[in-house]
Design a protein that fits this description.
two-stranded antiparallel sheet, mainly beta, 1 helix, 4 strands, 61 residues, elongated, single chain
Amino acid sequence: MAKCEICSKDVHFGIQVSHSHRRSNKMWKANVKKVRVAHNGATKTMKVCTRCLRSNLVTRA
């Protein structure tokens, strides 16, 4: 599953409603990228959401 290792953003569940008001279950996934990160002086790959990347919560290696 798509889960950010920084902010723990995960999938969200809800109901998708069509134009004719037919309802079905829907899953929204977080926009997660695999990024090389400088973490405690070492580089490692982490799954980070794009909001954490844009807000500079992570420094890229």
